[in-house]
Design brief:
Two copies of one chain form a homodimer. Chain A is α+β, with helices and mostly antiparallel strands and about 400 residues long. Chain A folds into two domains: about 5-275, L-amino peptidase D-ALA esterase/amidase, CATH 3.60.70; about 285-405, Ubiquitin-like (UB roll). Chain A is about 35% helix and about 25% strand. Chain A contains eleven helices and 15 strands. Chain A has helices spanning about 55-65, 85-105, 125-135, 145-150, 205-220, 255-275, 295-305, 310-315, 320-330, 365-370, 400-405, and strands at about 5, 15-20, 35-50, 70-75, 110-115, 160-170, 170-180, 195-200, 235-240, 285-290, 340-345, 350-355, 360, 375-380, 390-395. In chain A, the strands form two sheets. In chain A, strands 1, 2, 3, 4, 5, 6, 7, 8 and 9 form a nine-stranded mixed beta sheet that branches. In chain A, strands 13-12-11-14-10-15 form a six-stranded mixed beta sheet. In chain A, strand 6 (about 160-170) and strand 7 form a beta hairpin. In chain A, helix 5 (about 205-220) packs across helix 6 (about 255-275). The interface between A and B is large, with 60 and 60 residues.
């Protein structure tokens, strides 16, 4: 029952193809469109931003997912965000979907859309249509096809983000693969996290959605780059059933548990990749809270730490500033006793206890700095109140974050 | 019934004296202690950080205020934060109070304490005691005595913060004066907002506390420099009754309304001063939300905007990035409809409508940049749902914020 990471991305699962195009939406001439396609109709699941302001593609995809209609393609552009919330934005979605449906020869009701990039610019429909026309004949299921799609959805991400996992079920091989992009912007606008996951497992739509909805609570919802919840954040999950396993329809089915575990490996990988590639950041900052009374407390406490600007700046400075961490726990609302908390820093360079029962240990600042100078830094807070734990992922706050987001649009 | 700003600070009200000292707690040799003293016993009121982790002086002062005992002096040091939460920290408070009571010849139960500065260092009790001995004979009620105390409580504040107001009541003159310090640090530690207000009004202790507790909701609680709620934040208000007005004991008394209004002028001035002197900032960023359904909605929406890192970085870049503002309103939890919101930017350089009914107007980027290049910038969001409004104050996010908080302790 082991689950393996394998080389691959959004085309790793059976029957999934992808393509990319430089459709001329980005002024730089870089890849700016991607198309994900399944040979056969899929069950779709999705989770979306909780921001009251929701970009048109978010509304569109939510409708598609909730409708129960099969899904078969996702059209993504990374040039213009289509963050308009009104009729105009929905019109662009409809036009994009209609063009893709016609070119691909599939029902319009089976096409999902996603956008990220500049706001305040109109979606150039001629270029979008042109891009779809370019991509349709190029759709392929190779490693390279997936990689080029993952590249095409990047904005200011510094690396493309792909992952795939495999496991055995009913004597068949099930694969989950995906690609995502992090909070980056090519012009000042709203940051956007997009994640596209494909799988060939055969599972009921209800359980597909439940698995995703549960899993994001401990993965995407536990990351923060700057505390700003975007209007475009979306995770889409398509399952085409081509693995050939007996359909999973019962939560008690051990195949469901296995799928959830595998899905978690994909989403946790992406969450860390997005946090570690946060705008301007130099380090992935992981925070584990252990010994919490409830899972909710552990999540609240750990997320408060990775969101604290003061703590993030200290991580940038390789400074074991435990006071800021305890402070961020204090205002989080999560339950803990400052006088019993233990705090550790850990990285490839070692592990060091900084605080014992709320009081600083006699630790070496030099050793602490060494540990904090690694590209992946973990803080562990043991609150000694129970058995629950959670991990949150963030990044440091740097001059480059200010530069990227403060520079005047030119 | 008009209330006037007058020149002055913590010694402006009758019977209040202050002194300062360079007690050698700050390595720089700068002023690092202040003493505020009333000739006669005062009624005290206070509001304190809601952080679960509370520094010893916060616990000490809360006990004093709640006890109902008269208060007569406040001993403040700006060198070491005494952020310890346990018995050790409380021991330092007790030692400080005992020393001050003995030197000043007043009951220990009437002495309040406040600390800000480096954490993780022991409070040097010999220097604290030495400082009190230096200050006691120097206590004076002049303009300069107040100013030197306001200077002594600064950490990385770039300007001292004082204000005083006066109004007539029952044919007598009532004065409220005060001093405060903002979020600054001389070493990486927890930031601290401290505010000390003195008045000669005669008012019941209950109404004194009620006036303060109500007022902070619209003043100090509406500011943010970096979203981190300190463990030391305190506002202390002392009233010695020397103005000679008939004691205010009824909330319906018009003198109470007048006092509340005057207190608000003091606290709002301080709130803007603290936000406008936020670490590394170049601009005071004021956000007014008008037309909200409830006061609570207006406060949630305006505070979310001034707390958004992305918006703060845009203000630093003089960038009219309305998308980030609407986005921050969206995730705040406050009620509004993104499709009916109007948004304006205003400063000394003019006023410009950026968004009308959720859609960008055809505004001039050049004019917007001009308006946003002033040291005080206001954004006004009209959500057109009701009659309630609120204002929040923040500052821009700059390279210097990262430098101040990211530089390794050296």
């Amino acid at each position: 029952m082991s689950i393996q990471f394998i080389e691959g991305g959004v085309t790793a699962a059976k029957g999934f193809k992808a393509a990319s195009a430089a459709a001329g939406i980005k002024k730089s001439g870089k890849l700016d469109m991607a198309l994900v396609y399944s040979e056969t109709p899929c069950r779709s699941a999705g989770t979306f931003t909780t921001n009251r302001v929701q970009a048109a593609p978010v509304k569109w995809d939510r409708n598609q997912v909730y409708s129960g209609d099969p899904a078969q393609a996702i059209v993504i552009n990374s040039g213009v965000a289509n963050a308009c919330t009104g009729e105009e934005g929905m019109g662009y979605c409809a036009d994009t979907v209609e063009a893709a449906a016609k070119i691909l020869g599939i029902p319009a009701a089976s096409v999902l859309v996603a956008s990220t990039g500049v706001i305040g610019r109109q979606l150039p429909m001629d270029k979008i249509t042109g891009g779809i026309e370019m991509m349709a004949p190029k759709l392929g299921g190779t490693r390279e096809d997936g990689a080029s799609a993952a590249t095409a959805i990047m904005t200011t991400d510094t690396t493309k983000k792909e992952v795939a996992v495999q496991f055995e079920l009913d004597g068949t091989t099930v694969t989950i693969g995906g690609m995502c992009k992090g909070s980056g912007m090519i012009h000042p606008n709203m940051c956007t996290m997009l994640s596209f996951i494909t799988t060939d497992i055969c599972i009921s739509k209800e359980l597909l959605q439940r698995a995703l909805s549960e899993d994001i609570k401990g993965t995407y919802n536990m990351i923060s780059v700057d505390g700003d919840t975007s209007t475009n954040d979306s995770v889409l999950l398509l399952a085409n059933g081509q693995a050939g396993n007996a359909e999973i329809t019962d939560e008690a089915d051990e195949g469901y548990a296995l799928f959830c575990k595998a899905l978690n490996m994909v989403n946790e990988t992406f969450s860390k990749a997005i946090a570690g590639d946060g705008e301007g950041c130099t380090a992935l900052f992981e925070v584990k809270v252990v010994g919490a009374k409830t899972l909710e407390d552990a999540r609240i406490l750990s997320k408060s730490i990775i969101t604290s600007s003061l703590t993030k700046a200290a991580i940038f400075g390789h400074d074991a500033n435990w006071g800021r961490i305890i402070c961020a726990m204090g205002y989080s609302g999560g339950e803990f006793d400052p006088e019993t908390v233990d705090l550790f820093f850990e990285s490839k360079a070692g592990k060091l206890q900084i605080v014992k029962n709320g009081v600083a240990t006699d630790y070496s600042e030099e050793e602490a700095t060494k540990i904090l100078s690694e590209p992946v830094v973990t803080a562990i807070a043991d609150v000694k109140m129970g058995e629950c734990e959670a991990t949150a992922w963030g990044c440091d706050l740097t001059y480059d974050y200010v530069r990227i987001n403060g520079d005047y649009r030119s």
